[in-house]
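Progress note, project year one: complex with iron/sulfur cluster.
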Amino acid sequence: MTDGLSRPEHRALQREDEAFLPLPLQLSADPRPLAAHVRHLVRLLRDPQSTSPCSEAVAHVAGLFDRSVPETPEQPLACRKGCSYCCSQMVTLTAPEAFFVAAQLRERPKTVATIGQAHSLTGGLTVKARLRSKVSCPLLDDAVCSVYAARPLSCHGFVSMDLKACIAGLADGEPPNIPIPGLNVAMLDTCRMLYTAALRLAGLPVTVYEMNQALVTILATERAEARWLAGEDILAGVAQAPPPSRYDKTVAQMTAFIAPTV
Ligand code: SF4
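Model obtained:
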């Protein structure tokens, strides 16, 4: 909590925020819903009572994404359970997402070993080379994502309206040109901005990592999430994705607007 607001003002603002949190997010000029979600994420990440603040934060963003991008008859998706053509691409994610995925794997030693093997085959490859390697995501189980409810936002938002485009693009080994509904793309960017603003305001690293190496590191580190939240950069050695820049300005405006209220 900063000196910006008194305790009663914080409580009043929290009540105001709570009215926005269960609603689908409308992409509008009104900054209040975005600010409410960012403040909520900061509260979740700082919650000393939670056993996994990152899981709570990621579950909140995933739920928000789902209720904000309903499938419409005008833009039906080609994605179906058991279709996994897109699951041989490099997956990138934020640290909270990596902790959430890792939390699903603690009792799955075979999957953990497969992640290590995938990392030894693909670690250090470029996005293109990773795709050409045709190494499937180690979290796939019989062509189904085994961490579906906890899958990273980059997987969650990667949907297609054209199966043929997926097959053609991915068979070529070229980064595929997949038709994704415009609302999905906009909401994906918005959710990424929420993460970026919340991590920045919580004083945590705003970094995007390659998933397999992040998981290998987390799963080999005692109390990884708690230590990361306490400021120890346990992911410092993990390959990073280029920082997103197209929404830098918006995130800077968002954080400046919200900072006095967290
Ligand atoms: S995490 Fe799940 S959805 Fe994402 S690439 Fe891996 S198997 Fe596919």
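The chain is about 50% helix and 5% strand.
The longest strand covers residues 92-94.
No further modelling is planned for this target in the current period.
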